[in-house]
Design brief:
With 274 residues, the chain is of the alpha/beta class. The chain has one domain: Dihydropteroate synthase-like (TIM Barrel). Helix content is 40%, strand content 15%. It is globular and about 40 Å long. The chain starts with a strand and ends with a helix.
């Protein structure tokens, strides 16, 4: 299986580690640590040394209750980083739901659009469909960042998430986007309860049955804190465990803060695949 992106045809026969680069002052885990271009690029370079396969650059926090960021502010945060990061010879993903940011990042050479809204905001589908071969990740989110944890989903999460992802992937293909450009993300923590999040992990095979590569992001999420009692800064080990379980159950890309320990854990897992 491959993931076609702007400059890279990513081989998914081995799991890929997507490193998080938050150019934000208020992300739930690392807000403010890489909030200027120089710090963000230094972080990118460190993640490369740690063994990252894909860099995911974002300029707006999607933590529960996070305020929206204007188009101009988001562009000012991420574009200078993207312009430099595309020179690092690694796939560059832009984490945004705004069509204007998507277009500007693609014009700067970005490879992947990673959208928590699954291209449901105005103009987003059109930007991706008009591009020759950028990759795209469609994520399931129940509600919106401002309310998703106060009004989470009801009942089982598996079928609604699978149906949502299938519908939006097929809709994108109907616009001419090739199947191998599309990855899916169940949206751990986005409008789901702790039980629903772990249900998605336990029954991940039902999402894989849709026929697209699965990208998952368990890193430092509140559900991990709920079952371990760990504060955000203490969640590295359980986050790595969750990433490893996701890969063991078929996920091809894991989106993480702690790249080095995740890469190391996956090397151990790979050594046992005989």
């Amino acid at each position: 299986m491959f993931w076609q992106t702007t400059r890279f045809r990513i081989d998914l026969s081995q799991p890929q580690v997507m490193g998080i680069v938050n150019v934000t002052p208020d992300s739930f885990s690392d807000g403010g640590q890489h909030a200027n271009t120089r710090a963000a690029l230094a972080h990118c370079e460190q993640l490369l040394k740690d063994g990252v396969h894909i860099l995911d650059i974002g300029g707006e926090s999607t933590r529960p209750g996070a305020p929206a960021v204007s188009l101009d502010d988001e562009l000012a945060r991420v574009l200078p980083v993207v312009r430099e990061a595309v020179r690092l010879h690694v796939p560059i993903s832009i984490d945004t739901y705004k069509a204007g940011v998507m277009q500007a990042a693609l014009d700067a050479g970005a490879d992947i659009i990673n959208d928590v809204w699954a291209l449901r905001q105005a103009g987003a589908q059109q930007v991706v469909a008009a591009h020759a071969n950028c990759g795209v990740c469609l994520m399931h989110m129940h509600g919106e960042p401002q309310t998703m944890q106060t009004l989470p989903m009801q009942g089982s999460s598996i079928q609604p998430v699978a149906e949502f992802l299938k519908t939006h992937a097929q809709g994108l293909q109907a616009l001419g986007v090739a199947h191998d450009r599309i990855a899916l993300d169940p949206g751990v923590g986005f409008g789901k309860t702790v039980v629903q999040n772990f249900e998605l992990l336990a029954h991940q095979d039902q999402l894989l049955a849709l026929g697209y590569p699965l990208l998952v992001g368990w890193s430092r999420k509140s559900s991990i804190g709920a079952v371990t009692g760990c504060e955000v800064e203490e969640r590295m080990v359980p986050s790595v465990a969750a990433a490893l379980l996701a890969v063991e159950r078929g996920a091809r890309i894991v989106r993480v803060h702690d790249v080095a320990p995740t890469v190391q854990a996956l090397k151990v897992w790979q050594a046992a695949q005989v």
